[in-house]
């Protein structure tokens, strides 16, 4: 059984529906927004059904992808793939161990899976080191006026 994901609005509320009776609820989740870890909430409906939801606090939705790319930092190149992407950032997995630290900057080059197979180069900031092979990165600029911007508009 998968736990449903609910999105936090700009007013710091989340809306979810009871799986049993279908009644919808909107709750204030402001006290959970700043948590670093994944937030899983349990709720008991008036009908007696107890269910869980996961709060999604990202500003934009991420798309699961498999895009080949290379992360470049300090004249070293780490080939790998982008596993998910959003207009604000991406997750990159390297094929070999990478000595990359949080809050460091790097450049990433990857090929989109659009009809043109467009190549994209961006400067990124490593926000989270998930392992020696996996990194959560943020684009230094969230303005995408090239094929990446079109990708977010038409292939997302």
Automatic annotation (TrEMBL):
Query: What Gene3D superfamilies does this protein's entry cite?
Result: predicted glycosyltransferase like domains
UniProt-listed Pfam families: PilZ
- The UniProt record lists the PilZ domain at 56-140
An MF annotation (GO) of this entry: cyclic-di-GMP binding
Family matches, as InterPro entries? PilZ_domain
Protein name listed in UniProt: PilZ domain-containing protein
């Amino acid at each position: 059984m998968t736990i449903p994901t609910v999105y936090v609005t700009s007013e710091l509320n989340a809306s979810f529906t009871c799986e049993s009776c279908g009644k919808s609820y909107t709750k204030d989740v402001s006290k959970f927004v700043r948590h670093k870890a994944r937030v899983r909430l349990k709720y008991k409906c008036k009908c007696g059904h107890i269910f869980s939801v996961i709060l999604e606090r990202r500003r934009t939705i991420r798309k699961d992808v498999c895009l080949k790319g290379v992360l470049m930092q300090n004249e070293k190149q780490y080939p790998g793939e982008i596993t998910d992407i959003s207009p604000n950032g991406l997750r990159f997995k390297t094929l070999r161990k990478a000595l990359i630290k949080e809050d460091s900057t790097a450049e990433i080059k990857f090929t989109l899976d659009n009809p043109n197979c467009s190549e994209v180069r961006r400067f990124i900031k490593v926000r989270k080191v998930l392992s020696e092979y996996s990194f959560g990165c943020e684009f230094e600029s969230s303005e995408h006026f090239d094929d990446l911007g079109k990708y977010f508009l038409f292939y997302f």
